[in-house]
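Need a sequence for this fold. Nothing fancy.
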């Protein structure tokens, strides 16, 4: 995910910008006020399927997902089939015996410098992001021409790369899929797509300024729909201070929502003002904004409002849909660095996308080579989020949470950080501290210590699949 979402405008004005955009886009779109297991489900289904392991599908969802328009085969091939909204996705098992949830690849020994002959085996997920091991052994050793200007190269769990431009300036670079869900309504979909892209760049602490975007669109998109999508993307970029400097736009066979291309976002700023997830230090305090499962609850709120209303009332369901507009960390990040960086403030930032707050905390610790001691009770858990997660059977601390920013900060600037966030209406709390690596990763739950582990599999995807199947059966 990604689970996934800057500006030359002043940080002090961004909250108003988002609020104004929300007000403008909230009119005339009824997609968020109805059950979306038809239109929304077919667009999110690809993302759902790409995050579920084969074992999960086999054990939990094979029956409930049978018949969707997406047909997947184990191993290397993914076959996309067109179909009506009524059809649903089916994973095809080539043999009756259980198949492994991973594909194996033999890696030539030349990808392991310093080791002689032989080959090794790596495991690829059937679908979804590669593991740290695959990244370290296949991707990391093969990054094209070396350059001394690359200060922060690609790293697993690190959102941005940093390039030295000289004259005291650096450029932060991020890239992500363009994620468009038409069932949100085209304007809302465009807002979310841009903020997904912008959020990663903003975690560098620099204000993103440029974007290059590639749109590989499905054949069914119309000129009118493209115009609405693109003009809204333009407007949101303009509000955030981003200039679109290059791109490619086309319709192709085999392209489907929600992943309809990719984009790179660039931010330029002083060489002593950027941060990355690998810069957390022992002694830092750990701050989390907004709380757990913001995106998971927000997506359920706009996808299944009737079910939520039946459980908690219409007013609750309508109010919960406002979580949609919290699914960005642009303002969080730019506000955070306003109090100072590195020795004098924020040392690292990372948005808690797939696998949620727990996953994001582990990723920062691993990237920085440090330990952490985290108190679960200090992580904000909104009442509406908690109720939605309970209703749909998700652990909120492990669920996808675009909109939640993990920050490490020097202790003497922690209170200033919380105060700055509060002035923007952004809730935040100190949840723990960074400790020496030999102390490991510790989670304190109701006074008892246990190991803080990466969830690896986000519970959102299985829960969303079950909810879609139940909604269709009820319909």
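Here you go.
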């Amino acid at each position: 995910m990604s689970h996934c979402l800057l500006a030359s405008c002043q940080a002090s004005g961004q909250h108003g910008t988002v609020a104004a955009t929300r007000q403008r886009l909230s009119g005339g779109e009824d997609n968020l006020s109805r059950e979306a297991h038809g239109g929304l489900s077919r667009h999110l289904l690809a993302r759902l399927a790409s995050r579920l392991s084969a074992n999960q599908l086999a054990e939990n969802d094979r029956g409930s997902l049978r018949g969707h328009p997406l047909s997947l085969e184990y191993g290397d091939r993914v076959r996309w089939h067109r179909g009506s909204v009524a059809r649903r996705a089916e994973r095809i098992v080539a043999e009756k015996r259980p198949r492994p949830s991973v594909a194996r690849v033999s890696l030539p020994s030349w990808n392991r410098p310093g080791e002689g002959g032989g080959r090794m085996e790596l495991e690829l997920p059937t679908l979804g992001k590669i593991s740290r091991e695959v990244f370290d052994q296949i991707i990391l050793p093969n990054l094209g021409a070396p350059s001394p200007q690359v200060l922060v190269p690609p790293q697993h769990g690190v959102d941005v790369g940093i390039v030295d431009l000289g004259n005291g300036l650096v450029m932060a670079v991020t890239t992500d899929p363009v994620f468009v869900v038409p069932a949100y309504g085209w304007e809302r979909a465009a807002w979310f797509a841009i903020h997904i892209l912008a959020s990663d760049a903003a975690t560098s602490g620099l204000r993103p300024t440029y974007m290059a975007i590639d749109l590989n669109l499905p054949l069914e998109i119309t000129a009118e729909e493209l115009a609405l999508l693109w003009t809204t993307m333009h407007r949101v970029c303009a509000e955030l201070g981003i200039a679109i400097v290059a791109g490619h736009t086309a319709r192709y066979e085999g392209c489907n929502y929600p992943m309809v291309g990719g984009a790179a976002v660039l931010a330029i700023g002083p060489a002593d003002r950027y941060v990355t997830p690998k810069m957390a230090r022992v002694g830092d305090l750990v701050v989390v904004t907004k709380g757990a499962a913001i995106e998971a609850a927000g997506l359920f709120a706009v996808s299944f409002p009737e079910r939520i209303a039946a459980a908690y009332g219409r007013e609750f369901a309508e109010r919960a849909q406002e979580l949609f507009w919290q699914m960005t960390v642009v303002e969080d990040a730019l506000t955070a660095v306003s109090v100072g960086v590195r020795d004098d403030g924020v040392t690292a930032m990372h948005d808690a996308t797939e696998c949620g707050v727990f996953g994001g905390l582990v990723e920062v610790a691993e990237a920085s080579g440090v330990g952490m001691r985290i108190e679960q009770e200090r992580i904000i858990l909104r009442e509406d989020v908690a109720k939605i997660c309970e209703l749909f059977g998700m652990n909120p601390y492990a669920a996808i949470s675009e909109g939640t920013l993990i920050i490490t900060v020097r202790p003497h600037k922690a209170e200033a950080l919380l105060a700055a966030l509060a002035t923007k209406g952004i809730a935040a709390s100190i949840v723990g501290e960074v400790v020496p690596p030999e102390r490991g990763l510790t989670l304190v739950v109701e006074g008892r210590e246990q190991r803080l582990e990466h969830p690896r599999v986000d519970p959102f995807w299985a829960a969303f699949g079950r909810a879609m199947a139940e909604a269709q059966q009820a319909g």
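For context: Residues 1-17, 26-39, 49-103, 108-118 have pLDDT under 50 and may be disordered.
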